[in-house]
Design brief:
The chain is an alpha+beta fold. The chain is built from 41 helices and 28 strands. Strands 1, 2, 3, 4, 5, 6, 7, 8 and 11 form a 9-stranded mixed beta sheet that branches. It has a 6-stranded mixed beta sheet with strand order 17-18-22-19-21-20, with helices on both faces. A 6-stranded mixed beta sheet has the order 25-26-24-27-23-28, sandwiched between helices. Bound molecules: zinc ion. Zinc ion binds next to strand 1, helix 6 and helix 10.
């Protein structure tokens, strides 16, 4: 997902957390998996992946499972292909009903065109609303995960972040739903499978999804009312809260800036990769709307006025400027009825011509830009430069065939660690990790970018030269047949599988279609890939791959003068200089104010706070439609699981329809591993896949995996088990292939596990520097995850192990390891061998398989053969991993403008007995108390709590938070909040339904099988799930009150970890004498 995280603005990539979840990822790029994150790259309204973070918590299992499937090696989710197919949706299409033409006509719509799209087994009809010109795609099929989306073209003309602030604000109350945040009510109390909003550089997108029809239409109505009739255009305070405002609590204090988007963007601008991506985009498009930041530059956001804000809504949030999408198995006529109710209230406007995106003309000369980014003081600054080459490929949009071929070329050059451009850059030793996202075609004109970070000052010209010479070489020599075949198989596999992870398939199709539709092109065309793919295949077969790809490299890159080279220099003073400048600016503002002004500002600050903290009246809350408890199934979703035995090894089988794909996990017990080897495990996993064997170089091994399977990944998994001293600690090998290739799949898993040799010192060294770069990135962009891991490491053994393999301790380990690779490679190599010896044994093995019954039984013989080859050895005793980190309060100091603040304690230590009500309560705390205090009035982008029911650790976390100690006070107030809480039945029902919506999260078959495996490993039985569900459904106010004393354990005995800016930590330590022990990490 993260191709764009590397380049652009990904404000909160779920991958950041995803990666944290599964410890070290295999490689730092994922040019492939664009579709599910297509939207994630830009700005989302909420930091919605908080549940993904809850690694070990009760509900994270489904999410973890599905989100993993979008990880790099796993699957080709390239937008070019991946989002196109819904083949695996279900059995053959029934007679799919389309909207009746008469109904459409009567409701004021005109049918523009209609097609059956075989690729997604859908009937798609494009309508135009006659009165306003609103366009509407009605896609009908048998997918129960229904999707609605409305998209407006919203090109900004400056970097004040209007589109982004508007995206946040329209969901803060509307005509029919006049409460503070209907969005939050939906988040709390609906069965949505997706709910968010995104801002792109030129459009704003409001999607919802649900499998429950009644729930679905509720969501649609709230969204339609929100975009067309929001309160925010009359309500200055919403603008202040979501956008920016001056805050002054007392005239004697300093004025500060507050605002949710303001802080979200400060966080974005604290990340060097994001800064680089923004600089590149703006430099590539100096003359059109992409030359400014739609998300908002923190320096420019405070220039935005309320008038401009209102005008932007009036102009662009109009049906004439809207594109609307419905998808799924609901009644197409109902869709028309719903829309006409809204659209008929408007007349046509000039918006479509005013919002048109003008193309950027091509340069005649290349451009070079040098920028500074905020760096820490530690480490060798000389080696922290970044350099990236960027091309604008064309002065107009490309045709689909060319785009598809470019996507293929992108995969060939950069798609896997074995891809030539990627390989040569990493092997050069000139930098730590790849930056730049390869081909990017989500905007009007396609781009290509590639570069390195962790580069020495003097090596920058060498990197540029290496990129150019490698591209020239590829154009001259072409690609290996094996590589082309591997890419082709990966792409075709992905098409058939159509695995969008936790992202609804209908949404991924919508984003694909919108990518062209938004520019007035055909919305059907991007959904149809069969013919262009077949054409591409036959061209490659007839003319050879060189004839197909070389001209593209030459035309679009080598002979293209529209090239922007960006060099980013580390500047250890930048963060504090920026902060000082902001402070000075605010002091000037204050100095210019009269005493009355200041009193007025303090009064306005109070008024806003009061408004934010006053709950909505019950009658307002009741107007948000909600399901009743009768609509909720009484039983948990059961996953078919058969526990059997092959050659004495436990085998779990899940008979599910997977469209002929076999998914498998081979699990090895890690508990006998020596403690000091734990931090090496992630690198061990990477070595298995990227080191090569006696007979195969790593390139050959990778190509073989690409040609024969849908991907193999290896990673450690650790969690506490409730009621047990010892944690669950395993290495999981995950693989998938067409069922007919099960033999190849298990042979390759065997090869990876047994035949790979740990001999390549140079490659290992690259793994270390890549991992280090990744950890540093995670620290800046996902500090909440780092804080959570650190707190767990202080509270339990499983947490300690995970932190050794993915937290600050791991980063420290990597820093030390870099030198050791040079001095003691033999030692490291034999440690890797020792890990293999310790893990690989039939006795400690477990196999999990998901496919339909026949494919499962057909695969058994290959499993059996695979197990025969595993060494057998008596179970050794568990290693005693009794380690924990000291339980002091820590501040991990990094160069940033925003903080991540955490506090946690183990509730089981205080004698708490788990009940399902705890899920409802912690959900409610997140959605009300923390949302209102940490986000709405505190100005952080996110604030939430998690309860890991396996370990008992309850933690509070904030995300991109301007505060530090204040946030801790809010956490400490949670017990009192619960004690004073009054909830009516309605609110309680919503809290329960919202919790069920998490528990019943929508899953594709592979995720179901994986969840079932994790439950097995963690000893969660069906009876328990049933009991928890009953407890959730019968949660009462009394449970909330009782939980108050339990949660006070965090206040009284909790441990605090913050990832924060040096200035804020220093101030905090002054205020509360040396509260934090300071640790410098970057
Ligand atoms: Zn946002």
């Amino acid at each position: 997902m993260e191709r764009t995280a590397l380049v652009r603005s990904l404000s909160c990539s779920s991958l950041a957390c995803n990666r944290f979840l599964f410890s070290a990822p295999k490689h730092s790029r994922s040019f492939l998996s664009k579709s599910p994150s297509a939207a994630a790259r830009y700005h989302r309204r909420v930091f919605s992946n908080r549940s993904i973070l809850r690694r070990n918590s009760w509900r994270s299992l489904p999410l973890a499972a599905s989100s993993h499937s979008s990880s790099l090696r796993f699957g080709f989710n390239n937008r070019h292909f991946g989002s196109l197919s819904v083949r695996a949706v279900a059995s053959p299409p029934k007679d799919i009903a389309g909207a009746g033409d008469e109904v459409a006509e009567k409701l004021g719509f005109e049918k523009v065109s209609e097609e059956f799209i075989g690729e997604c087994k859908s009937k798609a009809v494009l309508f135009k609303h006659k009165r306003t010109g609103a366009e509407f795609m009605s896609v009908s099929n048998d997918d129960e995960n229904k999707v609605f989306g409305i998209v407006f073209r919203t090109p900004p003309k400056d970097s004040t972040g209007i589109p982004h602030i508007l995206e946040h604000s329209v969901l803060c109350g509307s005509r029919k739903y006049p409460l503070k945040e209907p969005f939050v009510e939906l988040l709390k109390g609906s069965l949505h499978t997706f709910l968010n909003a995104f801002t792109y550089p030129d459009r704003t997108c409001y999607p919802v999804a649900s499998t429950n029809a009644k729930d679905f239409y509720n969501l649609v109505d709230v969204y339609l009312d929100a975009v067309f009739f929001p309160k925010c255009i009359e309500d200055f305070q919403t603008f202040q809260q979501e956008g920016w405002h001056y805050e002054l609590n007392d005239p004697s204090e300093d004025i500060t800036y507050k605002g949710v988007v303001f802080n979200e963007m400060k966080g974005v601008y604290s990340q060097p990769d994001n800064l680089l991506g923004r600089t590149a985009q703006q430099a590539l498009f100096p003359d059109n709307t992409y030359g400014v930041d739609s998300g908002g530059d923190p320096l420019v956001i405070p220039k935005l006025t309320f008038e401009e804000f209102k005008e932007f809504h009036r102009k662009y949030y109009h049906p004439s400027n809207a594109r609307i999408w419905f998808y799924g198995d609901d009644d197409p006529n109902e869709r028309l009825r719903i829309l006409s109710e809204y659209l008929d209230l408007f007349d046509a406007s000039k918006a479509p011509s005013e919002s048109k995106i003008e193309p950027q003309k091509l340069f005649s000369e290349p451009v070079r830009i040098v920028e500074k980014y905020p760096a820490g003081e530690g480490g060798d600054l000389k080696k922290k430069h970044m350099v990236c080459l960027n091309w604008l490929l064309s002065d107009k949009p490309l045709d689909l065939q060319t785009e598809l071929t470019l996507g293929f070329l992108d995969h060939l050059m950069l798609g896997t660690p074995a891809s030539p451009l990627r390989k040569v850059l990493l092997e050069s030793g000139l930098g730590d990790a790849i930056i730049g996202g390869g081909v990017e075609d989500e905007l009007l004109q396609p781009q290509f970018s590639i570069g390195l970070k962790g580069v020495s000052d003097e090596d920058i010209p060498k990197v540029e030269e290496l990129i150019m010479s490698s591209l020239r070489k590829l154009a001259e020599e072409g690609f290996d047949m094996e590589a082309v075949e591997a890419s082709m198989n990966t792409i075709e596999f992905s098409l058939r599988e159509n695995n969008t992870g936790s992202f609804p398939r209908g949404l991924s199709l919508m984003l694909r279609s919108i990518g062209k539709w938004i520019y007035d092109m055909d919305p059907f065309e991007p959904l149809k890939y069969e013919k262009p793919l077949a054409d591409l295949k036959s061209r490659i077969a007839e003319e050879g791959s060189k004839a197909v790809f070389s001209p593209l490299i030459e035309k679009f890159i080598l002979n293209n003068p529209h090239c922007v080279t960006i060099e980013m220099q580390p500047d250890p003073e930048k963060a504090s200089r920026d902060e000082a400048a902001e402070k000075e600016n605010l002091e000037k503002v204050k100095a210019s104010m009269t005493e009355e002004d200041l009193a007025e500002l303090a009064r306005a600050t109070q008024e806003l706070k009061l408004k934010q903290e006053t709950p909505d009246p019950p009658e307002a809350l009741r107007c948000v439609p909600s399901l009743s408890l009768h609509d909720i199934p009484k039983e948990p979703i059961r996953i078919p699981t058969e526990v059997g035995d092959i050659n004495g090894v436990k085998v779990l089988q899940h008979d599910l329809f997977t469209n002929d794909v076999l998914y498998t996990e081979v699990v090895f017990d890690m508990s006998s591993l020596k403690q000091e080897l734990l931090p090496l495990v992630p690198l061990f996993c990477q070595s298995l896949l990227e080191m090569g064997s006696k007979d195969l170089t790593f390139v050959q091994l990778n190509q073989l995996i690409g040609r024969k399977t849908g991907g193999i990944s290896v990673y450690p998994f650790t969690s506490s088990i409730r009621g047990k001293e010892d944690p669950s600690s395993h290495m999981i090998v995950r693989g998938k292939s067409m069922a007919g290739r099960a033999d190849d799949l298990f042979n390759l898993i065997n090869c990876v596990l047994q035949e790979v040799q740990f001999t390549d010192q140079q490659r290992f060294k690259q793994f270390v520097s890549q991992s280090k770069a990744r950890m540093e990135n995670r620290l800046r962009g996902g500090g909440h995850g780092i804080a959570a891991a650190r707190m767990s490491a202080k509270l339990n053994v499983a947490g300690w192990i995970s932190e050794q393999m993915g937290g600050v301790s791991y980063l420290e380990f990597l820093q030390a390891l870099e030198e050791k690779v040079d001095n003691d490679w033999a030692g490291i190599s034999s440690s890797l061998e020792e890990i293999r010896k310790s893990l690989l044994s039939r006795e400690g093995c477990l196999v999990n398989m998901t496919a339909d019954g026949k494919n499962l039984s057909d695969s058994e013989k290959f499993v059996s053969k695979f197990l025969d080859l595993l060494p057998s050895k008596p179970l050794v005793e568990r290693s005693s991993w009794s380690a924990r980190l000291p339980s002091n309060n820590e501040a991990i100091v990094i160069p940033t403008q925003v903080n991540y603040v955490g506090k946690a304690a183990n509730l089981y230590d205080k004698g708490y007995q788990l009940s399902g009500s705890a899920y409802v309560i912690s959900n409610h705390i997140s959605n009300t108390w923390l949302w209102e205090r940490v986000r709405v009035s505190g100005g952080a982008y996110g604030g939430f709590c998690n309860f890991d029911t396996h370990s008992g650790v309850f933690n509070f976390l904030s995300y991109r938070d301007p505060n530090l100690l204040k946030t801790l006070d809010i956490y400490d107030g949670t017990g009192d909040f619960l004690r004073k809480l009054e909830v009516d039945d309605d609110t309680l029902t919503k809290a329960i339904i919202g919790t069920i919506s998490d528990v019943d999260a929508y899953q594709l078959p592979d995720a179901k099988g994986y969840s079932s495996l994790l439950r097995y490993l963690l000893g969660v039985k069906e009876e328990e799930r049933q009991r928890r569900r009953e407890e959730i459904l019968s949660t009462s106010l009394k449970d909330f009150k009782e939980f108050a004393d339990t949660i006070d354990a965090v206040k009284d005995n909790g441990v605090t970890v913050a990832v924060a800016s040096p200035d804020d930590v220093e101030a905090a330590n002054k205020e509360r004498s040396d509260f934090f022990q300071v640790k410098r990490a970057l």
